[in-house]
Amino acid sequence: MTLKATTSLPDARAFLGDAPVMAKRRVTEAGGASDTKQLRVAIVHYWLVSMRGGEKVVEELCRMFPQADIFTLVCNRDRISDFLKTRNIRTSFLQKIPGAQRHYTKMLPLMPFALEQFDLQDYDLVLSSESGPAKGIITRADALHVCYCHSPMRYIWDQFHVYRHGLPWVGRALMSITAPMLRAWDVTTSSRVDVFVANSDYVASRIRRFYDRESIVIHPPVATDDFAVGKGKGEFYLYAGQLTTYKRPDIAVRACTEAGRKLVVIGEGEQLAYLKSIAGPTVEFLGHQPFNVLRDHLSRCRALLFPGTEDFGILPVEAMASGRPVLAFDAGGARETVSSPQVGFRFGQQTTEALLETMAAFEEVEDDIDPHAIRAHSLKFSSAVFRDRLSGLIEQQLSTHGDRSADVFRRRPG
Predict the structure, then answer these.
(1) What is the mean pLDDT of residues 369-384?
(2) Which residues form the Glycosyl transferase family domain (predicted)?
Protein backbone atom coordinates (compact mmCIF):
# COMPACT_ATOMS: atom_id res chain seq x y z
CA MET A 1 0.00 0.00 0.00
CA THR A 2 1.34 3.47 -0.95
CA LEU A 3 0.77 6.44 1.33
CA LYS A 4 0.65 9.93 -0.13
CA ALA A 5 2.00 12.83 1.87
CA THR A 6 -0.56 15.50 2.69
CA THR A 7 2.10 18.08 3.56
CA SER A 8 3.59 20.24 0.82
CA LEU A 9 7.26 19.75 0.03
CA PRO A 10 8.35 23.22 1.28
CA ASP A 11 6.48 22.66 4.55
CA ALA A 12 8.04 19.22 4.94
CA ARG A 13 11.54 20.62 4.37
CA ALA A 14 10.89 23.34 6.92
CA PHE A 15 9.81 20.71 9.44
CA LEU A 16 12.86 18.55 8.78
CA GLY A 17 15.11 21.50 9.36
CA ASP A 18 13.53 22.35 12.69
CA ALA A 19 13.60 20.91 16.22
CA PRO A 20 13.36 17.16 15.49
CA VAL A 21 16.51 17.16 13.39
CA MET A 22 18.38 19.23 15.96
CA ALA A 23 17.22 16.83 18.66
CA LYS A 24 18.32 13.86 16.56
CA ARG A 25 21.71 15.48 16.12
CA ARG A 26 21.97 15.74 19.91
CA VAL A 27 21.11 12.04 20.23
CA THR A 28 23.52 10.97 17.48
CA GLU A 29 26.37 13.00 18.96
CA ALA A 30 25.81 11.68 22.49
CA GLY A 31 28.55 9.09 22.30
CA GLY A 32 29.89 9.39 25.84
CA ALA A 33 28.95 10.25 29.39
CA SER A 34 29.98 13.88 29.00
CA ASP A 35 28.01 14.25 25.77
CA THR A 36 24.75 13.10 27.36
CA LYS A 37 24.62 16.37 29.29
CA GLN A 38 23.41 18.12 26.15
CA LEU A 39 20.34 15.86 25.89
CA ARG A 40 16.89 16.88 27.06
CA VAL A 41 16.01 14.13 29.55
CA ALA A 42 12.68 13.27 31.19
CA ILE A 43 12.32 10.85 34.10
CA VAL A 44 8.80 9.46 34.47
CA HIS A 45 7.92 7.84 37.81
CA TYR A 46 4.49 6.53 38.76
CA TRP A 47 4.08 8.49 42.04
CA LEU A 48 6.33 10.20 44.58
CA VAL A 49 4.61 9.72 47.94
CA SER A 50 7.34 7.92 49.93
CA MET A 51 11.00 6.94 49.76
CA ARG A 52 11.22 3.25 48.90
CA GLY A 53 13.23 1.29 46.35
CA GLY A 54 11.68 2.87 43.28
CA GLU A 55 12.31 6.37 44.55
CA LYS A 56 15.94 5.50 45.32
CA VAL A 57 16.29 4.52 41.65
CA VAL A 58 14.85 7.90 40.63
CA GLU A 59 17.46 9.61 42.82
CA GLU A 60 20.24 7.74 41.04
CA LEU A 61 18.79 8.60 37.64
CA CYS A 62 18.79 12.26 38.67
CA ARG A 63 22.44 12.00 39.65
CA MET A 64 23.25 10.43 36.30
CA PHE A 65 21.27 13.12 34.44
CA PRO A 66 21.22 16.29 36.60
CA GLN A 67 19.47 18.20 33.81
CA ALA A 68 16.46 15.86 33.84
CA ASP A 69 12.89 16.91 34.61
CA ILE A 70 10.70 14.54 36.64
CA PHE A 71 7.13 13.71 35.63
CA THR A 72 4.92 11.91 38.14
CA LEU A 73 1.20 11.33 38.61
CA VAL A 74 1.07 12.48 42.25
CA CYS A 75 3.71 13.97 44.55
CA ASN A 76 3.79 14.44 48.33
CA ARG A 77 6.76 16.70 48.97
CA ASP A 78 6.56 16.05 52.71
CA ARG A 79 7.40 12.37 52.16
CA ILE A 80 10.27 12.58 49.64
CA SER A 81 13.97 13.23 50.17
CA ASP A 82 15.51 16.68 50.32
CA PHE A 83 17.46 15.77 47.18
CA LEU A 84 14.31 15.08 45.15
CA LYS A 85 12.71 18.28 46.45
CA THR A 86 15.40 20.24 44.59
CA ARG A 87 14.40 18.71 41.25
CA ASN A 88 11.91 20.12 38.74
CA ILE A 89 8.88 17.88 39.43
CA ARG A 90 5.78 18.08 37.23
CA THR A 91 2.57 16.37 38.33
CA SER A 92 -0.59 15.30 36.49
CA PHE A 93 -4.16 16.54 36.88
CA LEU A 94 -4.65 13.83 39.54
CA GLN A 95 -2.62 16.02 41.91
CA LYS A 96 -5.50 18.52 42.00
CA ILE A 97 -8.07 15.96 43.17
CA PRO A 98 -8.72 16.31 46.93
CA GLY A 99 -7.09 13.46 48.86
CA ALA A 100 -4.98 12.34 45.90
CA GLN A 101 -1.78 12.12 47.94
CA ARG A 102 -3.38 9.54 50.25
CA HIS A 103 -5.82 7.72 47.96
CA TYR A 104 -3.86 7.71 44.70
CA THR A 105 -4.12 3.92 44.29
CA LYS A 106 -7.90 4.23 44.02
CA MET A 107 -7.41 6.39 40.93
CA LEU A 108 -5.81 3.60 38.91
CA PRO A 109 -8.48 3.70 36.12
CA LEU A 110 -7.66 7.41 35.55
CA MET A 111 -3.90 6.97 35.42
CA PRO A 112 -3.56 6.04 31.72
CA PHE A 113 -5.40 9.27 30.80
CA ALA A 114 -3.23 11.29 33.17
CA LEU A 115 0.02 9.81 31.84
CA GLU A 116 -0.83 10.51 28.24
CA GLN A 117 -1.44 14.19 29.03
CA PHE A 118 2.25 14.72 29.77
CA ASP A 119 3.86 16.57 26.85
CA LEU A 120 7.31 15.04 26.27
CA GLN A 121 7.88 16.28 22.72
CA ASP A 122 10.93 18.35 23.74
CA TYR A 123 12.79 15.39 25.24
CA ASP A 124 15.44 13.30 23.49
CA LEU A 125 15.77 10.63 26.19
CA VAL A 126 12.87 9.39 28.33
CA LEU A 127 13.54 7.13 31.32
CA SER A 128 10.39 5.59 32.76
CA SER A 129 10.44 3.98 36.20
CA GLU A 130 7.70 1.33 36.07
CA SER A 131 5.84 -0.41 38.88
CA GLY A 132 2.65 1.52 38.82
CA PRO A 133 1.85 2.86 35.35
CA ALA A 134 4.72 4.97 34.00
CA LYS A 135 5.86 3.48 30.69
CA GLY A 136 2.59 4.46 28.95
CA ILE A 137 3.69 8.03 28.27
CA ILE A 138 3.78 9.23 24.66
CA THR A 139 7.24 10.26 23.48
CA ARG A 140 8.46 11.95 20.34
CA ALA A 141 8.86 9.41 17.54
CA ASP A 142 12.65 9.80 17.37
CA ALA A 143 13.26 9.91 21.14
CA LEU A 144 14.83 6.99 23.00
CA HIS A 145 12.55 5.47 25.66
CA VAL A 146 14.26 3.24 28.24
CA CYS A 147 11.98 1.64 30.84
CA TYR A 148 13.51 0.55 34.15
CA CYS A 149 10.92 -1.98 35.31
CA HIS A 150 10.70 -2.71 39.02
CA SER A 151 7.67 -4.87 38.24
CA PRO A 152 4.80 -5.09 35.78
CA MET A 153 1.76 -3.69 37.62
CA ARG A 154 1.09 -6.32 40.28
CA TYR A 155 -2.51 -5.27 40.94
CA ILE A 156 -3.66 -6.12 37.42
CA TRP A 157 -1.41 -9.13 36.81
CA ASP A 158 -0.12 -11.81 39.20
CA GLN A 159 -1.31 -10.08 42.42
CA PHE A 160 -4.73 -9.15 41.01
CA HIS A 161 -6.74 -11.50 43.24
CA VAL A 162 -4.73 -10.61 46.36
CA TYR A 163 -5.43 -6.90 45.94
CA ARG A 164 -9.03 -7.48 44.87
CA HIS A 165 -9.88 -9.59 47.94
CA GLY A 166 -8.67 -6.78 50.17
CA LEU A 167 -11.26 -4.32 48.82
CA PRO A 168 -14.89 -3.73 49.83
CA TRP A 169 -17.51 -5.06 47.43
CA VAL A 170 -17.76 -1.78 45.51
CA GLY A 171 -14.01 -1.77 44.95
CA ARG A 172 -14.00 -5.42 43.91
CA ALA A 173 -16.74 -4.76 41.36
CA LEU A 174 -14.95 -1.71 39.95
CA MET A 175 -11.64 -3.55 39.75
CA SER A 176 -13.28 -6.48 37.94
CA ILE A 177 -14.70 -4.09 35.34
CA THR A 178 -11.62 -1.94 34.78
CA ALA A 179 -8.80 -4.52 35.08
CA PRO A 180 -9.29 -6.08 31.60
CA MET A 181 -9.10 -2.64 29.97
CA LEU A 182 -6.03 -1.72 32.03
CA ARG A 183 -4.32 -4.98 31.05
CA ALA A 184 -4.99 -4.28 27.37
CA TRP A 185 -3.60 -0.75 27.76
CA ASP A 186 -0.59 -2.06 29.68
CA VAL A 187 0.31 -4.61 27.00
CA THR A 188 -0.27 -2.14 24.17
CA THR A 189 1.94 0.53 25.73
CA SER A 190 4.82 -1.93 26.12
CA SER A 191 5.44 -1.32 22.41
CA ARG A 192 6.18 2.34 23.22
CA VAL A 193 9.36 1.25 25.01
CA ASP A 194 12.60 0.92 23.05
CA VAL A 195 14.52 -0.97 25.75
CA PHE A 196 13.27 -2.72 28.88
CA VAL A 197 15.64 -2.95 31.85
CA ALA A 198 14.51 -5.38 34.58
CA ASN A 199 15.60 -5.08 38.20
CA SER A 200 16.01 -8.87 38.52
CA ASP A 201 15.82 -12.12 36.58
CA TYR A 202 12.46 -12.68 38.29
CA VAL A 203 11.04 -9.45 36.85
CA ALA A 204 12.61 -10.20 33.46
CA SER A 205 10.62 -13.45 33.32
CA ARG A 206 7.41 -11.56 34.14
CA ILE A 207 8.13 -8.93 31.45
CA ARG A 208 8.55 -11.78 29.00
CA ARG A 209 5.32 -13.43 30.11
CA PHE A 210 3.06 -10.37 30.22
CA TYR A 211 4.55 -8.18 27.47
CA ASP A 212 6.36 -10.73 25.27
CA ARG A 213 9.46 -8.51 25.43
CA GLU A 214 13.05 -9.31 26.32
CA SER A 215 14.88 -7.17 28.87
CA ILE A 216 18.34 -6.51 30.24
CA VAL A 217 18.80 -7.20 33.96
CA ILE A 218 20.47 -4.46 36.01
CA HIS A 219 19.93 -4.78 39.74
CA PRO A 220 18.70 -1.64 41.52
CA PRO A 221 21.12 0.58 43.46
CA VAL A 222 21.69 -0.12 47.13
CA ALA A 223 23.43 2.57 49.19
CA THR A 224 25.86 0.08 50.70
CA ASP A 225 28.11 2.91 51.94
CA ASP A 226 25.33 3.96 54.34
CA PHE A 227 25.77 0.72 56.31
CA ALA A 228 28.60 -0.78 58.33
CA VAL A 229 29.32 -4.16 59.87
CA GLY A 230 27.95 -4.38 63.40
CA LYS A 231 30.01 -5.40 66.39
CA GLY A 232 29.51 -8.64 68.26
CA LYS A 233 26.87 -11.32 67.93
CA GLY A 234 23.37 -10.26 66.99
CA GLU A 235 20.83 -9.77 69.74
CA PHE A 236 17.50 -10.48 68.01
CA TYR A 237 15.84 -11.48 64.76
CA LEU A 238 14.48 -8.60 62.70
CA TYR A 239 11.51 -8.15 60.40
CA ALA A 240 11.27 -4.78 58.64
CA GLY A 241 8.91 -3.52 55.98
CA GLN A 242 5.24 -3.02 55.31
CA LEU A 243 2.92 -5.11 57.43
CA THR A 244 0.79 -6.24 54.54
CA THR A 245 -0.57 -9.65 53.56
CA TYR A 246 1.64 -10.54 50.61
CA LYS A 247 4.86 -9.83 52.55
CA ARG A 248 3.84 -12.52 55.07
CA PRO A 249 5.11 -10.93 58.32
CA ASP A 250 2.82 -13.39 60.13
CA ILE A 251 5.29 -16.18 59.35
CA ALA A 252 8.11 -14.35 61.14
CA VAL A 253 5.89 -13.47 64.13
CA ARG A 254 4.55 -17.01 64.53
CA ALA A 255 7.99 -18.63 64.15
CA CYS A 256 9.67 -16.47 66.78
CA THR A 257 6.69 -16.82 69.11
CA GLU A 258 6.78 -20.61 68.87
CA ALA A 259 10.57 -20.79 69.19
CA GLY A 260 10.72 -18.26 72.03
CA ARG A 261 13.17 -16.14 70.03
CA LYS A 262 13.30 -12.37 70.34
CA LEU A 263 11.92 -10.60 67.26
CA VAL A 264 11.84 -6.87 66.57
CA VAL A 265 9.27 -5.73 64.00
CA ILE A 266 9.78 -2.37 62.28
CA GLY A 267 7.01 -1.17 60.01
CA GLU A 268 3.35 -0.33 59.81
CA GLY A 269 0.37 -1.52 57.79
CA GLU A 270 -3.09 -3.01 57.85
CA GLN A 271 -1.92 -6.25 59.49
CA LEU A 272 -0.50 -4.60 62.62
CA ALA A 273 -3.48 -5.34 64.90
CA TYR A 274 -3.67 -8.95 63.71
CA LEU A 275 0.07 -9.52 64.19
CA LYS A 276 -0.09 -8.18 67.73
CA SER A 277 -2.93 -10.59 68.45
CA ILE A 278 -0.84 -13.64 67.48
CA ALA A 279 2.48 -12.44 68.90
CA GLY A 280 4.00 -13.79 72.09
CA PRO A 281 6.03 -11.86 74.70
CA THR A 282 9.27 -12.21 72.74
CA VAL A 283 7.97 -10.06 69.85
CA GLU A 284 8.38 -6.27 69.99
CA PHE A 285 6.64 -3.88 67.58
CA LEU A 286 8.35 -0.52 66.98
CA GLY A 287 6.07 0.80 64.21
CA HIS A 288 7.48 3.12 61.56
CA GLN A 289 11.01 4.24 62.32
CA PRO A 290 13.43 6.69 60.68
CA PHE A 291 16.36 5.42 58.68
CA ASN A 292 18.93 5.77 61.46
CA VAL A 293 16.89 3.47 63.73
CA LEU A 294 16.48 0.89 60.96
CA ARG A 295 20.21 1.04 60.20
CA ASP A 296 21.05 0.52 63.88
CA HIS A 297 18.78 -2.52 64.13
CA LEU A 298 20.16 -4.01 60.92
CA SER A 299 23.66 -3.84 62.38
CA ARG A 300 22.60 -5.49 65.66
CA CYS A 301 20.24 -8.25 64.53
CA ARG A 302 21.10 -11.95 64.45
CA ALA A 303 19.52 -12.22 61.01
CA LEU A 304 16.90 -10.52 58.89
CA LEU A 305 13.74 -12.59 58.37
CA PHE A 306 12.36 -12.12 54.87
CA PRO A 307 9.32 -14.38 54.37
CA GLY A 308 7.64 -12.57 51.45
CA THR A 309 8.18 -12.64 47.70
CA GLU A 310 9.75 -9.45 46.33
CA ASP A 311 10.64 -8.52 42.79
CA PHE A 312 14.16 -7.73 44.02
CA GLY A 313 14.19 -6.78 47.69
CA ILE A 314 16.61 -4.01 48.69
CA LEU A 315 16.28 -4.63 52.44
CA PRO A 316 18.11 -8.02 52.37
CA VAL A 317 21.05 -6.35 50.63
CA GLU A 318 21.04 -3.57 53.25
CA ALA A 319 21.16 -6.25 55.95
CA MET A 320 24.09 -7.91 54.18
CA ALA A 321 25.83 -4.53 53.85
CA SER A 322 25.59 -4.47 57.66
CA GLY A 323 27.27 -7.88 57.79
CA ARG A 324 24.13 -9.70 58.86
CA PRO A 325 22.75 -12.88 57.22
CA VAL A 326 19.26 -13.19 55.73
CA LEU A 327 16.73 -16.00 56.12
CA ALA A 328 14.50 -15.60 53.07
CA PHE A 329 11.70 -17.40 51.30
CA ASP A 330 13.10 -19.09 48.19
CA ALA A 331 11.35 -16.97 45.57
CA GLY A 332 11.66 -13.71 43.66
CA GLY A 333 14.76 -11.56 43.93
CA ALA A 334 16.01 -13.37 47.05
CA ARG A 335 17.25 -16.15 44.76
CA GLU A 336 19.67 -13.64 43.25
CA THR A 337 20.77 -11.84 46.44
CA VAL A 338 20.74 -14.58 49.11
CA SER A 339 22.74 -16.75 46.79
CA SER A 340 24.91 -18.89 49.09
CA PRO A 341 25.03 -20.28 52.66
CA GLN A 342 27.82 -17.78 53.38
CA VAL A 343 25.31 -14.91 53.28
CA GLY A 344 22.07 -16.58 54.41
CA PHE A 345 19.56 -19.37 54.00
CA ARG A 346 16.46 -19.78 51.84
CA PHE A 347 13.44 -21.87 52.85
CA GLY A 348 11.41 -23.62 50.18
CA GLN A 349 7.88 -23.32 51.58
CA GLN A 350 6.16 -20.15 52.71
CA THR A 351 5.19 -21.57 56.09
CA THR A 352 6.01 -21.10 59.75
CA GLU A 353 7.35 -24.64 59.95
CA ALA A 354 9.79 -24.09 57.09
CA LEU A 355 11.12 -20.91 58.68
CA LEU A 356 11.52 -22.65 62.06
CA GLU A 357 13.60 -25.39 60.41
CA THR A 358 15.74 -22.78 58.67
CA MET A 359 16.26 -20.83 61.90
CA ALA A 360 17.45 -24.04 63.58
CA ALA A 361 19.88 -24.77 60.74
CA PHE A 362 21.17 -21.18 60.86
CA GLU A 363 21.71 -21.21 64.61
CA GLU A 364 23.88 -24.34 64.32
CA VAL A 365 26.43 -22.46 62.17
CA GLU A 366 25.74 -18.91 63.31
CA ASP A 367 29.10 -18.50 65.04
CA ASP A 368 31.00 -19.54 61.90
CA ILE A 369 29.48 -16.94 59.58
CA ASP A 370 31.86 -14.13 58.55
CA PRO A 371 30.15 -10.70 58.62
CA HIS A 372 32.83 -9.14 56.43
CA ALA A 373 32.33 -11.77 53.73
CA ILE A 374 28.61 -11.00 53.82
CA ARG A 375 29.29 -7.29 53.34
CA ALA A 376 31.70 -7.98 50.47
CA HIS A 377 28.89 -9.88 48.74
CA SER A 378 26.51 -6.91 49.13
CA LEU A 379 28.87 -4.62 47.19
CA LYS A 380 27.84 -6.38 43.96
CA PHE A 381 24.58 -4.42 44.27
CA SER A 382 26.04 -0.99 45.09
CA SER A 383 24.91 2.31 43.60
CA ALA A 384 28.23 2.62 41.78
CA VAL A 385 27.70 -0.70 40.01
CA PHE A 386 24.16 0.35 39.04
CA ARG A 387 25.30 3.69 37.59
CA ASP A 388 28.16 2.11 35.67
CA ARG A 389 26.00 -0.60 34.07
CA LEU A 390 23.01 1.61 33.28
CA SER A 391 25.04 4.50 31.89
CA GLY A 392 26.93 2.09 29.64
CA LEU A 393 23.66 0.64 28.36
CA ILE A 394 22.12 4.06 27.70
CA GLU A 395 25.20 5.33 25.87
CA GLN A 396 25.20 2.23 23.66
CA GLN A 397 21.48 2.57 22.97
CA LEU A 398 21.78 6.28 22.19
CA SER A 399 24.48 5.51 19.64
CA THR A 400 22.54 2.78 17.83
CA HIS A 401 19.22 4.61 18.18
CA GLY A 402 20.74 7.73 16.69
CA ASP A 403 22.11 5.77 13.73
CA ARG A 404 18.72 4.15 13.03
CA SER A 405 16.83 7.43 13.23
CA ALA A 406 19.41 9.28 11.15
CA ASP A 407 18.89 6.66 8.44
CA VAL A 408 15.14 7.37 8.51
CA PHE A 409 15.77 11.09 7.95
CA ARG A 410 18.21 10.36 5.14
CA ARG A 411 15.63 8.19 3.38
CA ARG A 412 12.99 10.90 3.39
CA PRO A 413 12.34 12.50 0.00
CA GLY A 414 13.60 15.97 -0.80
Answers:
(1) 96
(2) 231-366
